[in-house]
Each structure stands twice: as C-alpha cells, then as structure tokens.
Amino acid sequence: MLDNLITEFDRGLRTLFAPAHSARPHPDHAVEEAELTQAEKQHALGLMRVNHCGEVCAQALYQGQALTARDPAAREALRHAAFEEVEHLAWTEQRIRELGGRPSLFNPLWYTGSLAIGVAAGMLGDKWNLGFLEETEHQVGAHLDSHLQELPQQDARSRAIVSQMRDDELKHAEMASELGAAKLPAPLRGMMKLSAKLMTSASYRA
User: Fold this and answer.
1) What integer best gives the mean pLDDT of the chain?
2) For residue 159, how many C-alpha atoms fall within 13 Å in the half-sphere facing its CB?
3) How distant, in Å, are the alpha carbons of 20, 35, 45, 71, 120 from that of 49?
4) Is the separation of the CB atoms in 151 and 18 below 8 Å?
5) CB 3.0-4.6 Å disulfide test: which of 41, 83, 113, 156 passes with 36?
C-alpha cells in the first residue's frame, strides 16, 4: 500500500507540474493552423483550458479510484482510462500553448478535490466505483460535444483533438458498463454536473 501511495503521489506531481507525453500521434498533427480572429482565439483557448483541466481532474479521480478498487479487472480498467487521459493532457496542453495561453491556475485545487472523490468512490465498492467512471465519462462526452458546437468552425486543430477525446471517453464508459457498473442515483449525477459547471466557469477564465 505504501508503494502504491508513493507511486500515485509521484504521478500527481507529474500531472500538475511536468509536461505530459502521448504514445499516439496528436490528432491534429497533420492539420494546418487556421487564421483566427483574436476573439476566436481567446474563446478556443478558454475551451481548451477547460478540457485540459478536465483531464487533470480525470487523472486524480482515476488514481483515487484505482487505489481503493478491490477487483483487479476494475483496477485495470481505471488505470487504462487514466493512461489515455495522460495523452489527452498532452494534446490539450500543446494546443493551449499554440493558442498563446497557459493551463488553469486552479489545477492543483481541482486535482486535490478529484483525488478525494476518487478514493471515496472506490471505498463504496467496485460496482459503484465503475458506475462513477461510467457516469463521469458520459458527462465528459456530452461536455466535449458541446465544445465541438462552440469551437470556431475553421479551428480544425482544436476540433480534431476534442473529437478524438470524446471518442475515447465514450469507450471508457462502455468498458465500465461491461464490467458491471451500477447506475448512480439522480441526485448524485446532478451534483456531478453542478461541480463540473463550477470547474468549467473558473477554468475558462483562469
């Protein structure tokens, strides 16, 4: 257990303070940069900052869940999801830099809260742990769909990243369902949506 805690602590530091790396090519690697107005660039930057912040939260959430998961299959599913979220971190981080911005100043705060939520979810049992994963991914998928509607049409680079992220998140949800995820109660799903809105509003601006 101590070794696991040390490993996860190191992973948290790298999530917050070290550049992320992707095993897969970035989805926008072959897409040309478009000309954007200053307003369009700032809006795209805000949306990509929100997406990056969401991936920081996902890292913390899945790390906490994996720490307390009992079933090896559930633990492996969470670690697989976390691995792909690292790639999403790399993609969004690079895009933020290309748009002339920086990640959210609130990332350490969101990371700490998400880690605590992940640990608590895992302690409830594996079916609820997986249920939390499934619901999180469904909500993130819907959130990314909304960003595809909001991003400037000509910003093909950002859109390519968000589109691939959405596809990955929905696969994670399907994986959790196949492993026996329980459906979360409606009040809890509502609380998750509310917390996501608060994070989105803060991260878009800073």
Assistant:
1) 88
2) 13
3) 15, 20, 6, 34, 27
4) no
5) 41
Examine the pLDDT at 12 and tell me if it is beyond 80.
no
CA 68 to chain CA mean position, Å? 20
Work out the pLDDT band at 85, boundaries 50, 70, 90.
confident
Per-residue pLDDT of 165-197, as tens digits, reads 999 999 989 988 988 899 999 998 998 898 888
Round to whole Å and give the CA distance between 165 and 144: 8
Place of tokens 């900052």: 49
Distance CA 166, CA 158 (A): 12
Distance, in Å, from the CA atom of 149 to the CA atom of 22, rounded to the nearest integer, reads 26
What kind and span of H or E run contains 160?
A: helix 156-178
- pTM of the predicted structure, to 2 decimals: 0.88
CA distance 120 to 84: 22
Residue in the structure block whose two tokens are 């700490």: 112
- Cα torsion 130, 135, 138, 143 to 10°: value is -130
